[in-house]
């Protein structure tokens, strides 16, 4: 397999990403003070910050994938699925040059079967743990006994 065109494409994309990275320095706000701002102005600034963070994160992940693909080219394993060892079709590599797996194994990571549970947010484990405790069965009643906004006529 001739990996030269893929290597060139990967290196060009890496250079393009690295060229844009230094321009994202500090988040700029449109106001000097948040005290008298309309909430929509603050929301706009926050949305802009989150968008920029998401784009930066995407570029970092893309750089990692490019580096992994370039390493595979260096090792001579580029074009071979990391999971099953079958040849990755050139059509797939032309569209996704960072692909290290065939289409059938695209959602799997380096030979390990990533179950749905492994892909869930970590917060869910903490939240589920809190609701599975035996002493949590009567939590509403406990809170209500401590105090509520009900008046005596509501009871």
Automatic annotation (TrEMBL):
Residues 17-59, 129-155 are annotated as: Disordered. Residues 146-155 have a biased composition (Polar residues). PROSITE patterns: ZF_DKSA_2. Keywords: Metal-binding, Zinc, Zinc-finger. A zinc finger (dksA C4-type) spans 81-105. This is TraR/DksA C4-type zinc finger protein. PANTHER family: GENERAL STRESS PROTEIN 16O, RNA POLYMERASE-BINDING TRANSCRIPTION FACTOR DKSA-RELATED. Residues 134-144 have a biased composition (Acidic residues). It comes from Chryseomicrobium palamuruense. Residues 17-27 have a biased composition (Basic and acidic residues). Residues 76-104 form the Zinc finger DksA/TraR C4-type domain.
